[in-house]
Specification:
Length: 303
């Protein structure tokens, strides 16, 4: 049986919270105007202006209350809207790149990204470089083409390493001295959600497996994405999914090795397979100490 939300949560689910706040603001202004009218001794220019303003404010309050009530009743028992509120979805988007660019410009602390082919992430290379220059802590969780998990989804599709290079180079170009504030780990497990984190905001959506119209192969395609509310349970689940996969990774990119190999790649005419071989030379094992440090960041110590 469906359990209804509380009155305030239903008001938020029906997108009427702003109406309520405006009603409270107008009521407050109306009361202040009456008080000014009283102080003006019910006469004079200030008194007349105050009583006129209070009349206008209270009239607006009555109109807005009526409108809000009618909208509330029209949505009352709307299980769909209440379900969206319970899930913690604040908005649906079909232009993920535009949403991410706007959030990344305001990023202050953390940026996370996951993915296979890095098509969208590579298109955000300018924003990534800019964030690297501001020492934003970044984490990239990648399933590379040499892993079986990648091949199960995309087969042997080539020409994706240029996207990897674009992302890695953007981090190096943006980092003045060291890129150690940016971590890249390689995962051997399949990804089911295309997830980005910008500070406390999670932007995510499921991969939908459809047939690619160009090579007629089944591949994962991103259709829509949803923005999650920070206090929701779904927000916590998506965060836990990322950290669980992150902690399971055994390899990461070594920036000093990549810096050397990057020059070699850019100065040579290499195909996709050869670029893969070179990049793998810059990948190192993650020490147990690093893994423990990562887990301690995610799971707070018990008092």
């Amino acid at each position: 049986m469906f359990e209804h939300l509380s009155l305030w949560k239903r008001i938020k689910a029906y997108k009427l919270a702003i109406n309520v706040w405006v009603v409270l603001l107008l009521t407050f202004l109306g009361i202040v105007s009456v008080f000014i009218y009283y102080l003006a001794d019910y006469s004079g220019f200030i008194g007349n202006l105050a009583i006129a303003a209070s009349t206008s404010f209270f009239a607006s309050v009555l109109v807005l209350i009526s409108e809000t009530y009618l909208k509330f009743r029209s949505h009352e028992n709307d299980i769909f809207l209440e379900g969206i509120e319970k899930l913690g979805i604040s908005n649906l988007h079909f232009q993920k790149s535009e949403l991410l660019r706007s959030l990344m410009r305001r990023c202050e602390e953390d940026f996370w990204a996951v993915g296979y082919r890095q098509i969208l992430t590579a298109s955000l290379s300018d924003q990534i470089e800019e964030m690297a220059s501001r020492n934003i802590k970044m984490r990239f969780l990648l399933v590379p083409p040499w892993e079986e998990a990648y091949q199960l989804v995309y087969g042997s599709q080539d020409r994706v390493m240029s996207n990897y290079l674009k992302v890695f180079d953007a981090i190096l170009f943006g980092s003045s001295s060291s890129a150690n504030h940016c971590e890249v780990r390689f995962c051997d497990k399949p990804l089911f959600n295309d997830t980005y984190r910008v500070d406390a905001d999670f932007i995510t959506g499921p991969y939908m497996h459809n047939r690619d119209k160009h090579n007629k192969k089944i591949s994962a395609q991103d259709f829509f994405t949803y923005e999650l509310k920070r206090e929701s349970g779904l927000h916590g689940l998506v965060k836990d999914e990322f950290t669980a996969l992150w902690d399971e990774c055994d390899t990461q990119l070594d920036w000093e090795k990549y810096r050397i190999i990057s020059e070699k790649i850019h100065n040579s005419d290499l195909n996709d397979a050869e670029i893969q071989e070179n990049i793998r030379e810059a990948i190192v094992e993650i020490s147990e100490t690093q893994k423990e440090e990562t887990i301690s960041e995610v799971v707070p110590a018990k008092p």
